[in-house]
Design brief:
globular; 891 residues; seven-stranded parallel beta sheet
Length: 891
Amino acid sequence: MPQVYNFREIGRLPDEGDNVAIATRRLEAGTWIACRNGRFQVDTTILEGHRFATDHISRGEELLSWGLPFGVATREILPGSWARNQQILDALKMRRIDFELPAAANFEDRIDRFELDPNRFQPGSQVPPIQDGLNFLGFRRSHERGIGTRNYIILLGTSSRTASFVRSLARELEDRVAAFPNIDGIVPVAHTEGGDTDIPNNLDHHVRTLCGFMVHPNVGAVLAVDAGAEVLSNARLQDYLEKFNYPIASLLHDFSSIGADYDRARKHARRQIEAWLPIVNDCKRTAEPVAELKVAIQCGGSDAFSGISGNPLVSEVVREIIQRGGSANLAETDELIGAEPYVLANVRNWDTAHRFLDFVERFKEIASWHGVTAESNPSAGNKFRGLYNIVIKSLGAAIKKHPEVCLDYVIDYGEPMKQSGFYFMNSPGNDLESIAGQVASGCNLVFFITGNGSITNFPFVPTIKVVTTTARFQLLNGDMDVNAGAYLDGRKMSDLCQETFALAREIASGNRSRGERAGHSQVSLWRAWPQSGPEALGALLDREEPETRPVDLKPFLALPASPFPAWPNTRGLSLERLGLIMPSSLCSSQIARMAAERLTSGEVGKEKGISRFVALPHTEGCGFGGRTVIPILTRTMIGYMTHPFVECGLFLEHGCEKTPNDLLFHEVGKRGLDPDDFGWASVQLDGGIDRVLDKIEQWFQERILSLPNPEVVQADLASIKVGLSGTPELDRAACQQAVSIVKLVTGAGGSVIVPQNSPLLDSPLFCKPLFAEDHPEASLAYSASPSEPGCYIMETPSKHWIETLSGLGATGIQGVLMGGGETPLQNHPFIPVISLANALPPWSDEPLSATTAKIFCEALIKALKVRTSAWQQDQERADFQLSRGPLGLSA
């Protein structure tokens, strides 16, 4: 007789009325299962977390989880059959799996719009209060600001243009708090928004969020820094703070602008922070009631067990907090689509329910402007771990709200929570973007439930990580706080609830969470969506990327240029030898940075000429939608991995993103590259932060041993690719220098790449002497590599300088030459950005002579090599950010 497994050994039903179950372990084809009053055989291999039928499901019948439908059968589904839609089959085809997938899906997704029935609506009621005197130790602020669970000084980069400034300043000052025991740290709040010249479509979200950060009860003092000329400026923050009566007067604060004098601004900031330290340290912890806790409820890297163990556990703990007068904030609008009947089964009144549904419909509308639907939300990691579509993901996510807890209030992104109770906050499903809004609303503690093992943390609010299965908890025990998987193993939910509730009070009182001890945190605001209506969608969907070809130049006399020493490799000319850690998503970005710093400080590879290791942290790869986004992201990442400066590089995934290593592995192969030429590591699958850092170091040490010794050769400008742009203060001399760069480099057989948004292309002084056409079009896609030597115009999806610079870098350039005035622009992490006026001799002769060409060439190469070696100074002003393209949005 074949072995027959009892259903409880291998599966779970979220609700007894469901007709599909979740596999709690991998089930091989042919496995026999005893379930209810019969037994059946599994028809194909079923991965852990994936669903299989427990009942006969006829064609056209709904598939149910938690008693609610998530799909409709397209054919008869027998007990033991793997329930699968086309989306999950497509996702698994990109994975390296060891069994044959079925040829066809057996159910299709269906999302029905939820409508409130006025004849059946009944106002809900909140759980009864408890008065037992439980408290925690917190920092008492003014009445309007509330109670802090931490006491931080924050350095707020008002826009993306000052992100590198506050990060660098925080690194410089981080050791100063050791002498002040009541201060938890000096942390940067750096983000990607507001650095454009155009007003973003969600400017109110950005301003409201930053104002909420400033007056947050965990903040003892705040320095807000802008660049002086951006859309998201200190002046705009001050106006908003005053207009909406934010309690800024009760907080130590200062507004500072970098302007044209970077060093002066840095000295001012240091003096201000030093003066604040003893004052902030005077605030001490006092006993405060649990009613002062405002908790953010967030999930990320969700799996099929999130709705069975992790989310129900946190919902129980939140109920305890609500009963004692505290507050909770549930977010992620698009991750509740399909779960509206559950969310609104207990809601305070009709208006609150309607406001929730209005936000859902608004989210769908904005998504439609970008050619996507809510179905774009589930990530590759979600799907791999059993969340087939947005409905089944939402049904599990909604369980973070306990059924007995009433939805009291519905607020917009970052809107303050002014009364106690249970809130829903409008936000995207992108974890970090959503958390930023919850913190701005006043949350002083974060519950983060994860199935795959997300490790993200916020800089000045502690995060409690709750993982859904024991196996993942054991794999990531250095980064997770709570094992909700113990419930699946047989522990009582009530016991786990009391333990987690006690842990929450301990962490609120100052005990460090695992994430805090790891020193890992990130910030990402709800990124601006590019379209403000449906009008442009058709043209954008039909639009093709530019054909890769040089633009036509007017005839000119090519002149010889001087040779110079450099390192050759198979990808071009190297002026520096680097190791690169390329994070495949925002959630692995900070770990990539940590790895690069560790390898550089350890001088790994020094004997083979490796000068340093670089990471390129960014905010993409997770929580986005848009048809063109993944091609842009993968092209850019691979472009950097094959940059001539990079001697060896490793892709680092988080493990649950939309652009995982498996996807990049396939894309590398499609480009004719050998995936084995690169390293591959996973924060989650390799066991968490400490273990993956060890793995990364071991891979680079072994890889570097196989590298040939560096050999310097004489090169010429035919091996050079340079980016060329300018600031708005372009003058005649800068344009003449830029014209000469194009002629000198392209005449020698090299390449020059001008971004489409460059002020140079608006100047007749630059365009008229060069281009055969009056207004040449883009001839190179964003971040694409040139196909042959010449002058190219690279398309730019935005006016965001860092996105532009990051796209230029991926083309393989050795440097960026900038003409213009005093506008301070950020640098690149490893590609030198050079001022023409400061680095090169003035140019006025036309046509070029051989003598002046020689001088110019020598100055150019010297500037490239000097700026490359002066990387430490560059890092103070360096930043990096990938573009989403014209149709990308947070999801």
